[in-house]
Each structure stands twice: as structure tokens, then as C-alpha cells.
Design goal:
Shape: elongated
CATH class of the largest domain: Alpha Beta
Structural class: alpha+beta
Largest sheet: 5 strands, mixed
Strand order of the largest sheet: 15-14-13-16-17
Strand content: 15-25%
Number of helices: 10
CATH architecture of the largest domain: 3-Layer(aba) Sandwich
Radius of gyration: 24 Å
Number of strands: 17
Order of helices and strands: EEEEEEEHEHHHEEHHEEEHEHEHEEH
Number of domains: 3
């Protein structure tokens, strides 16, 4: 999906203005406090994720600026005051947008006129930031109490709060998409994340919302490159046989590729060493909050079925051994096999299995063949009940 969602966690604005620019031209203008004599630029987001600078200017002494570009279809652009401070705009032929705010805090302070949809985007950004603040606050409480004798009960309560926060964000995002499926803002809702590689929406589980947005946007913007990209992506997801499988793909029914990586104590542990059991091959990381939220579910299923031959082989995408081992200890998941090459997203195992987001897992039968994937929450327990009969 990188050709669609390369603007993660940024504001995306569809512009409809009562003021019009010449045909095939758009204008971005405004006034920025603390902007006098400073540089501002407008860049176009290309389909491959790269950026092309369209226009740039030195802001006037009074803080005024005006940038221009051309285009015949809606497209995403970045207005940058610095490499790390920017807002994302969607510009179309005839668009005119006015921006006010503080140059030194552009993304935080910007007010955008000329677009109803920009209000929706603002709401989305405010909500996801609120959610992330609440999640971070839970982490602070945990860190403040990690030496507390009652840490287990404190952690259990924090886990409940974490799940509640996640569910509240999802309900908000779902309600937004159902109310505004024809808005490019819904692409933002579909692409938002709780943390890197930890999306609010998972395409395999939330296909209905992707399809809802795809249908509505296609009807309204049939020539949009981003809409076409979304549609192409959904075709590939639903019909993987229609295109060459990417390196590392493992369809259900095929043998899982071998993994042989070191455990926390340095011992090499191979995935094939667990043959003869049903094995959950699980990709996770200590920094991944949704992964950590799933730990309790893994523990409960492991306790229930380990005597029947169920095992877990967990591959960490952490960068440091300390974070990895601390997560194992804190989540009490040390009973099963843990391995990692500590290469983060450059993990050899992640590349082999085409892992692009976590948590992600594959359930293997005793012969090492994949029989299911991405079983989380109640889905894992239901599948194991189906296998073991209780």
C-alpha cells in the first residue's frame, strides 16, 4: 500500500473554495506569524512515495506568501516550513487555499480556509493525537510503578485501559468513514497508526471499510491516481493469484520457509525444530503496543493447549536486546520459543515472510504448512478450539 498511504499521520485536505484559480492551476497562499524572511515550499507527492518540489518562496516581511502549481486531478502535496514541520494538502485544478498560523509551529497551529473536508482531517488528527497521548500516559504509569510489589495487578489494569483506548479510537474512525466515505479524509482514517507499522485498520480484517471508501471515492473521483492506487491494491489483496507473488509470500497450504535465529541466550533455534506440533509463528516487538496488547491472549491459549501439542515461535523485530528481553519478562511470555536478529524492519525473517506490519502471525500444522494467518483476539482461540475440539 505504500503507493497509497505514504502520507501516514499527516493531515490530508481536499480543497473546495469559493475563490477559483485559473483552469489547471492551484494557489496556496496565506500569512504566517514569525515567517518574515523565511523559506517555505510546496512539494508534490509522487506515486512511488518520493517528493517533487513544485514551488518555493521567501515569505514577505509581513508574513505573506503565495505558491502556485498546475494539475488536472486531485493530488497530495506537502507545504513545508522545515523538513520536520509540514502540513499535507490535496490540490485540484482551480483550488485556492488560504493558510494562517505560526511558521515555527506550522503543523500544530495551521488554520486552513477554503475546504470543508479540511475540518474533517483536523478532527481526525486531533483524535489520533489524543489517543496516542493516552497510550503514552499508560506507559508512564507503568514505568513509575515497575518496582511496585503490586505491578502485576497494576499492569492488568493498564492492559484493560489500553484495550479500551484502542477500541475507542477504532469506533471513532469507523464512524468517521461510514459518515464520509467519499472524502479523501477517509484515506487518512484508513492509514492512521497507533505506532509505526501498527495501523488502526488492518486490511485483512477491515476489508469492508476499505471497499466502502474505494467505491465512494471511485464514483466521485474516477481519475484520481490515489483512488486508482487504492483500487489496484484491493484487487491484489483479494486476488493474489492474479499477480506474481512477492518474495517471501506463503499462501495457505504451502510449507512455511525455515527460520533459524538466536534466542535471548544466543542459542540458535529453528522453526522446523517444532515440527510435530501446531505452531503459531508470531511476529512482534517490544515497542509495538498492539503486539503487547495481544500477549495476554497468547498466554491464555498457550496454557490451554500446550499439553495437546500447541507451541509458539515468536520472532521479535526489536533493535535492542534489552527492549526485547524486557518485553518478554513484563508480558510473561517466556514459556515458548523466542528468536531475533535484532535488525528491526530489516529482519531477515520479516523479509522472508513479507511482513509489512505487526502484529502478524501464521498458524502451522504439524507438517509445517500454513493453515491460517493473522489470527488475533478471539480468532486464535476459535481456530485452536476447532483443531483440538474444546
Amino acid at each position: 500500500m505504500r503507493n497509497i498511504f505514504y502520507l501516514l499521520l499527516a493531515g490530508i485536505f481536499f480543497l473546495s473554495s469559493c475563490e477559483s484559480a485559473p483552469e489547471n492551476q492551484f494557489i496556496v497562499k496565506g500569512n504566517l506569524e514569525n515567517g518574515s524572511g523565511k523559506y517555505i515550499s510546496l512539494s508534490k507527492a509522487e506515486n512511488d512515495g518520493s517528493m517533487t518540489t513544485i514551488d518555493s518562496i521567501t515569505i514577505s516581511e509581513t508574513g505573506d506568501f503565495e505558491l502556485k502549481g498546475t494539475g488536472s486531478n486531485p493530488k497530495f502535496f506537502l507545504l513545508k516550513s522545515s523538513p520536520n514541520d509540514m502540513i499535507t494538502l490535496m490540490l485540484d485544478s482551480g483550488s485556492v487555499i488560504s493558510i494562517t498560523g505560526d511558521y515555527d509551529k506550522l503543523s500544530e497551529s495551521a488554520t486552513i480556509e477554503g475546504s470543508e473536508d479540511s475540518k474533517y482531517i483536523r478532527e481526525l488528527n486531533i483524535q489520533i493525537q489524543k489517543t496516542m497521548t493516552e497510550i503514552n500516559a499508560l506507559g508512564e504509569v507503568y514505568n513509575a510503578n515497575k518496582d511496585n510489589p503490586s505491578i502485576d495487578s497494576i499492569k492488568a489494569e493498564l492492559d484493560k485501559q489500553f484495550v479500551s483506548i484502542i477500541e475507542a479510537q477504532r469506533k471513532y474512525s469507523i464512524a468517521f468513514i461510514e459518515s464520509h466515505p467519499e472524502s479523501f479524509a477517509s484515506l487518512v482514517a484508513l492509514s492512521q497508526q497507533f505506532a509505526p507499522r501498527s495501523p488502526v485498520f488492518n486490511v485483512s480484517e477491515d476489508m469492508a471499510y476499505f471497499e466502502l471508501v474505494s467505491k465512494a471515492l471511485t464514483a466521485k473521483y474516477p481519475n484520481s491516481e490515489d483512488v486508482k492506487g487504492l483500487n489496484d491494491f484491493l484487487v491484489r489483496v483479494k486476488n493474489p493469484q492474479e499477480e506474481a507473488a512477492p518474495a517471501g509470500s506463503i499462501p495457505v497450504g504451502t510449507e512455511a520457509p525455515e527460520i533459524n535465529l538466536p534466542s535471548p541466550n544466543g542459542e540458535m533455534v529453528s522453526l522446523s525444530s517444532l515440527r510435530g506440533n501446531y505452531v503459531l509463528l508470531d511476529f512482534w516487538a517490544g515497542w509495538c503496543r498492539p503486539c503487547r496488547a495481544e500477549s495476554h491472549n497468547l498466554v491464555q491459549n498457550y496454557k490451554r493447549y500446550k499439553s495437546k501439542g500447541f507451541d509458539i515461535y515468536q520472532v521479535s523485530l526489536d533493535e535492542t536486546k534489552e527492549m526485547w528481553v524486557n518485553a518478554i519478562e513484563k508480558d510473561k511470555v517466556g514459556k515458548w520459543k523466542h528468536v531475533s536478529d535484532l535488525k528491526y524492519w530489516q529482519s531477515d525473517a520479516a523479509a522472508l515472510y513479507n511482513i509489512r506490519s505487526i502484529p502478524a502471525n501464521f498458524l502451522l500444522d504439524p507438517e509445517g504448512k500454513v493453515i491460517a494467518s493473522n489470527l488475533r483476539g478471539a480468532a486464535l482461540g476459535a481456530k485452536l478450539k476447532e483443531i483440538y475440539g474444546y
